[in-house]
């Protein structure tokens, strides 16, 4: 399936309008990277001034993302300068980089811990003052070396910087005078003036940091809600979390007035979501919110799962659980995959229930109640069953304290992929991102898909593939080592067969009626897909099928090709082939058949589920197979566009089976009848099998087989022929064993009539034994 993402193009007019460093650039870092990448193919696409701004904009983004300058940031600014042009914003950025270095240099002085007391002994004073003087001297030496880079585009920063340098010089002089007084044992060391000067410098340092443009101010900490807003997707969750925050704050404000609330919902929370949807991240943000509002003493979060809490003998689970609860006091106890604490099929030796009982007790009574919050997380269906099986626990979590995190949309997953790549200093080309879209689509087949986690893993695999294949040369452009291309994703794409599915079908012997039906369906699917791509209405496609025929007529082989064809047409994401029989779907006791059937269907999602001898599922109304059929019908409806089911078996048995359940009859509209092979077709299969191993058949052997196929009906069809050839080869070996030294090449390669007569009796006898 070809995906066409829409990419915004970087326009020169908008580039030239960006002239103020206090304003965000019109394009993201990734868009700028792609624009610079495009310049390699089209060097004259932008004017020199616009190209300068591109390099400056990229340096800006990089500086803001890392909150510090590095070699690549300086390289980008140098590239921009070499292009020429008077770009004011470039000078502003140089200024920011310079003053960030000044700030970092100033931070080497541990001013916050510099303090001296009148009551200190002279020896103590002397030691401290000498250390401070030495630190200041080193500071001035380093500052002098870096002074050549000074740029005063930012007047505010320049003024504060000059004031700081003056204040530092005055403090240093105070220290020099004090050292002289202490060494000469004179009294009157100006401790008050020294402390006052230090406090003034601390204030100036804070003022200096606040004078940076907000986008570069490292002292501005993001609130939990701001962090949440920065996350990809989760729009409904963001809305709820904002409401929840304001509700909690409102209740806190009411308490300050004197109001009371008896039925408080509490802070305990349930978070559900499929893998990789951000459950742990949301739990950490909740801990920060509770602390920020003063509801908990700290924002610490103790993260545990079943393995941390459940012991191996009586009493150990209670002890381990209480230890983690005590550790979480003042903060949050976060239990991931909480449903695993209760196992429906658990024996008497499973102590998960002891954990639940201990937890409920600590949450509701005793000295720890109200001193910590519990957040339980897990997959939606498992958590629903877990809570319903534990009424005491469920009652501690009101409905409004339950957050469900939806799966990410594909476009959101692409944003996560690009952010992951950028965090590691990579970016996707447009064609690579389109390829990555297809990777996500193929991986996103059921609720086991890992969402953000899977996407990050895929990105890191691409980065590994790139890094394992190239080395850095001096002549390389820096972009060469940031670019993720389609070839870097090749390791994760499905390997194509050397032979196309339709060609594989054509190579099969016989089956002309089946071939025609499959080709007709394949053409129909392709045309409907083309109509859909062009915006025309499409006819619903019925892909579930019934393959009826005797054993060995090619049902499984054609089903495999069918799955490949559907994947090639873009109707199946994976196109894999899962074979099942009654034993794979039906269990021995009530309730387990549905689970077993659902698990097999989940395994087949995105591909074809081939149920051989499907009629064996129905053995009467009281048989567990009926539960498997009902579950199959329900799951086919639920996963209609993500699963193809093929039922196979004898013709009459399959007709009775389909008619036994109205749900089956309405879902299987496509029937393929596999006829027994004709004599000539069976001979072709025999010759094909013989040639595979570089053998040949004598004329009298071929005549014997033709007569045998005509006179006696064989069960098993192609399977019978394959077994027949295998047996003939073994009988040939037995025949040649005594003359192996004298045997020539022709004898080694030839199967004669005697070999096949013996083989026929052996295979027919085995066939009769199987029937008996």
TrEMBL record:
Question: What Gene3D superfamilies does the record tag this protein with?
Answer: 1.10.8.60, P-loop containing nucleotide triphosphate hydrolases (3.40.50.300)
Q: Which domain of life is it from?
A: Bacteria
Keywords, A to Z, come to:
ATP-binding, Nucleotide-binding
Q: Which SUPFAM superfamilies match?
A: P-loop containing nucleoside triphosphate hydrolases (SSF52540)
Q: What is this protein called?
A: Putative stage V sporulation protein K
Q: Which residues form the AAA+ ATPase domain?
A: 265-407, 541-676
Matches recorded under CDD domains: AAA (cd00009)
The answer, when asked if Transmembrane helix is one of the entry's keywords, is: no
Q: Which species is the source of this protein?
A: Amphibacillus xylanus (strain ATCC 51415 / DSM 6626 / JCM 7361 / LMG 17667 / NBRC 15112 / Ep01)
| Similarity field | Belongs to the CbxX/CfxQ family.
Pfam families given in the database record: AAA, AAA_lid_6
Alphabetically, the GO molecular function entries are: ATP binding; ATP hydrolysis activity
């Amino acid at each position: 399936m070809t995906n066409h993402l829409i990419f915004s193009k970087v326009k020169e007019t908008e580039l030239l309008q960006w002239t103020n460093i206090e304003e965000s650039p019109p394009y993201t870092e990734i868009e700028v990277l792609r624009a610079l990448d495009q310049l390699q193919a089209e060097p004259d696409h932008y004017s020199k001034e616009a190209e300068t701004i591109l390099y400056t904009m990229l340096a800006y983004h990089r500086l803001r993302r890392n909150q510090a300058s590095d070699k690549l940031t300086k390289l980008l600014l140098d590239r921009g300068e070499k292009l020429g042009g008077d770009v004011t914003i470039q000078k502003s950025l140089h200024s920011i980089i310079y003053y960030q270095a000044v700030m970092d240099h100033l931070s080497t002085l541990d001013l916050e811990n510099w303090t001296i007391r009148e009551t200190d002994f002279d020896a103590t004073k002397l030691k401290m003052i000498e250390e401070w003087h030495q630190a200041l001297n080193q500071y001035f030496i380093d500052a002098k070396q870096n002074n050549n880079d000074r740029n005063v585009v930012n007047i505010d920063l320049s003024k504060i910087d000059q004031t700081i340098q003056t204040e530092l010089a005055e403090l240093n002089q105070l220290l020099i005078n004090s050292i002289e007084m202490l060494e000469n044992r004179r009294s009157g060391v100006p401790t008050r003036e020294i402390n006052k000067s230090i406090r003034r410098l601390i204030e100036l340092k804070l003022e200096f940091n606040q004078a940076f443009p907000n986008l570069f101010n490292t002292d501005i900490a993001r609130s939990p809600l701001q962090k949440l807003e920065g996350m990809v997707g989760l729009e409904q969750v963001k809305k709820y979390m904002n409401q929840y925050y304001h509700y909690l704050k409102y209740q806190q404000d009411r308490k300050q007035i004197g109001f009371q609330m008896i039925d408080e919902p509490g802070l305990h929370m349930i978070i559900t979501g499929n893998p990789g949807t951000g459950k742990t991240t949301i739990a950490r943000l909740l801990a920060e919110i509770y602390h920020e509002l003063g509801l908990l003493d700290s924002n610490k979060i103790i993260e545990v799962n079943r393995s941390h809490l459940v012991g191996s003998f009586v009493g150990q689970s209670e002890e381990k659980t209480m230890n983690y609860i005590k550790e979480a006091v003042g903060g949050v106890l976060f239990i991931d995959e909480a449903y695993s604490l209760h196992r429906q099929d658990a024996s008497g030796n499973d102590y998960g229930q002891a954990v639940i009982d201990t937890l409920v007790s600590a949450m509701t009574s005793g000295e720890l109640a109200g001193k910590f919050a519990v957040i339980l997380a897990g997959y939606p269906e498992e958590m629903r069953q877990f809570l319903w099986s534990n009424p005491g626990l469920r009652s501690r979590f009101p409905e409004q304290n339950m957050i469900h995190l939806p799966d990410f949309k594909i476009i959101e997953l692409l944003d996560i992929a690009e952010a992951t790549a950028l965090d590691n200093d990579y970016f996707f080309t447009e064609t690579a991102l389109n390829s990555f879209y297809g990777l996500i689509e193929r991986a996103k087949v059921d609720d086991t898909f890992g969402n953000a986690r899977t996407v990050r893993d895929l990105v890191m695999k691409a980065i590994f593939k790139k890094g394992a294949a190239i080395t850095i040369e001096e002549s390389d452009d820096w972009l060469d080592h940031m670019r993720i291309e389609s070839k870097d994703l090749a390791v994760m794409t499905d390997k194509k067969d050397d032979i196309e599915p339709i060609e594989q079908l054509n190579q099969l012997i016989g089956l002309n009626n089946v071939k025609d039906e499959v080709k007709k369906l394949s053409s129909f699917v392709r045309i409907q897909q083309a109509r859909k791509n062009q915006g025309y209405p499409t006819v619903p496609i019925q892909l579930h099928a019934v393959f009826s025929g005797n054993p060995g007529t090619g049902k499984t082989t054609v089903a495999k090709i069918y799955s490949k064809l559907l994947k090639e047409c873009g109707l199946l994401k994976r196109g894999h082939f899962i074979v099942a029989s009654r034993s794979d779907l039906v269990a021995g006791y009530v309730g387990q058949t549905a689970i077993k059937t659902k698990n097999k269907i989940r395994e087949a999602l995105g591909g074809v589920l081939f149920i051989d001898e499907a009629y064996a599922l129905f053995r009467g109304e009281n048989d567990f197979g009926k539960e498997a059929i009902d579950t199959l019908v329900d799951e086919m409806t639920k996963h209609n566009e993500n699963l193809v089911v093929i039922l196979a078996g004898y013709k009459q048995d399959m007709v009775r089976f389909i008619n036994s359940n109205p749900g089956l009859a309405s879902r299987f509209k496509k029937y393929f009848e596999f006829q027994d092979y004709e004599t000539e077709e069976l001979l072709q299969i025999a010759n094909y099998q013989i040639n595979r191993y570089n053998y040949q058949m004598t004329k009298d052997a071929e005549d014997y087989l033709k007569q045998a196929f005509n006179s006696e009906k064989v069960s098993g069809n192609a399977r019978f022929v394959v077994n027949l050839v295998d047996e003939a080869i073994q009988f040939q070996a037995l025949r040649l064993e005594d003359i192996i030294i004298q045997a020539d090449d022709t004898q080694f390669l030839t199967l004669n009539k005697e070999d096949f007569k013996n083989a026929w009796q052996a295979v027919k006898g085995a066939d009769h034994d199987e029937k008996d």
